[in-house]
Design goal:
- This protein is an alpha/beta fold.
- The chain has 12 helices and 12 strands.
- The strands form 3 sheets. An 8-stranded parallel beta barrel has the order 1-2-3-6-7-10-11-12, surrounded by 6 helices. The chain has a two-stranded antiparallel ribbon with strand order 4-5.
- The chain starts with a strand and ends in a 5-residue tail after the last helix.
C-alpha cells in the first residue's frame, strides 16, 4: 500500500460533500472519533502508512492525535493543510462550514495548532486549495515563512482545486526564495471525470516533486453515480467501481500517492482493492473517454450539498 494514503475529510466533521458516506447513526464527537479510529486501525492493518488531514476537517487532527496516543504507532507519515478554518460548529445545517484565508497570520496560527496536536509526525504541510488568484503569490512575508518551514525540514506543499488547477500548479512551482523552490509537493484533484491537471502534474513529477492525488472518486460520484464503463470493468475484475477509479489514478506513473477518503471500514476495504488489480490499456483508454470539461465538472461539484 505504499502509494495509497487515507484522508480524513469525510470523518473529521459531521457534514461533508461526499456522496454515499457510511457514518454512525449519531454523528456526535465520540461516535465520529470511534469511527475514525476504526478506519485508521483497518488501514494500518492493511499496510497503509500515510494519513492526510487538514485544519478545516473539523476534529480530524484531534482524532488522529488521539489514535496515535492509543496505538503508539511511530511509522505513519502525516500530511496536513492550512488556509481554511472550520466554522461549522459540528452542525449538519451550518450555513457555512469553512472559511478560507491565505495569510501569514493564518499560516502561523494553524501551523502552531497542527504542531501542538501532531508534533513532529507532520512530514508535509500544505497550502489548502491554492488558486492562481490567491493573495499568497504577492505576500512576501507568507512566502518567506513557508520557505523557513522548509528549511526546518518539513516538506512544504500546496493543494489545488478548480478548473485552472494546471495554472496554479505551474505558477506555484516557480516560487523561489534565495534561489530555492518554496514548494516540493502538490496535491491535486485528478480522476477519470476531471483529468485536466494531468500534464502539469506529470511535469512536476519529472522535476522531482511529490504528487498526491485527491478526490480520486470525484466526491463519491464514481461510486454512487458510476458510469457504465466503470461498473462493467469493475465486474470483470471482481471489484467495486471505487477500486477501478483508484486504479485509474495509480495507473499514472507520475502519481506518488493516491488519497482515498473512506467513511467506514467497508469502504476502505473496497477502495484498497485497487492495489490488487491492473487495468489493461484498452480499459484505461475507455476510462479516459469519461472526462468532462473541467468547467462542467467543477460547476457540478459546487452544487453538491453538505450532508
Amino acid at each position: 500500500m505504499e502509494r495509497i494514503a487515507v484522508g480524513l475529510a469525510a470523518l473529521g466533521r459531521p457534514a461533508y460533500i461526499n456522496l454515499g458516506r457510511e457514518l454512525p447513526g449519531t454523528r456526535d464527537v465520540p461516535a465520529m472519533r470511534a469511527a475514525t479510529h476504526e478506519v485508521l486501525d483497518a488501514a494500518y492493518a492493511a499496510g497503509v502508512r500515510w494519513v492526510d488531514v487538514a485544519r478545516s476537517y473539523g476534529l480530524a487532527e484531534d482524532f488522529l492525535a488521539s489514535w496515535f496516543a492509543e496505538t503508539g504507532h511511530t511509522d505513519v507519515t502525516v500530511s496536513s493543510k492550512w488556509g481554511y478554518r472550520y466554522v461549522g460548529e459540528w452542525r449538519l445545517d451550518a450555513p457555512v462550514h469553512e472559511v478560507k484565508e491565505h495569510s501569514a497570520a493564518r499560516f502561523a496560527g494553524q501551523w502552531a495548532e497542527t504542531r501542538a496536536l501532531l508534533g513532529e509526525r507532520v512530514r508535509l504541510y500544505q497550502v489548502h486549495s491554492l488558486t492562481v488568484d490567491s493573495p499568497l503569490f504577492s505576500d512576501e512575508a507568507l512566502i518567506d515563512a513557508l520557505a523557513a518551514l522548509a528549511e526546518q525540514g518539513v516538506e512544504v506543499g500546496f493543494s489545488t482545486s478548480g478548473p485552472a488547477q494546471a495554472d496554479a500548479v505551474r505558477r506555484a512551482f516557480e516560487l523561489e526564495v534565495a534561489g530555492r523552490p518554496v514548494f516540493s509537493s502538490v496535491q491535486s484533484t485528478w480522476n477519470v471525470l476531471e483529468p485536466s491537471v494531468g500534464a502539469a502534474l506529470a511535469e512536476a513529477r519529472a522535476a522531482g516533486k511529490r504528487v498526491l492525488v485527491k478526490e480520486t472518486l470525484a466526491n463519491g460520484r464514481l461510486v454512487v453515480e458510476a458510469p457504465e464503463p466503470i461498473t462493467r470493468i469493475a465486474a470483470a475484475h471482481g471489484v467495486g467501481p471505487d477500486a477501478v477509479a483508484v486504479a485509474a489514478v495509480l495507473a499514472n506513473g507520475w502519481v506518488s500517492t493516491a488519497i482515498v477518503g473512506p467513511s467506514s471500514t467497508h469502504q476502505l476495504a473496497s477502495n484498497l482493492d485497487a492495489a490488487r488489480i491492473s487495468l489493461t490499456a484498452e480499459e484505461t483508454a475507455e476510462l479516459a473517454g469519461l472526462a468532462e470539461p473541467a468547467e462542467e465538472y467543477w460547476r457540478h461539484r459546487s452544487h453538491l450539498g453538505w450532508d
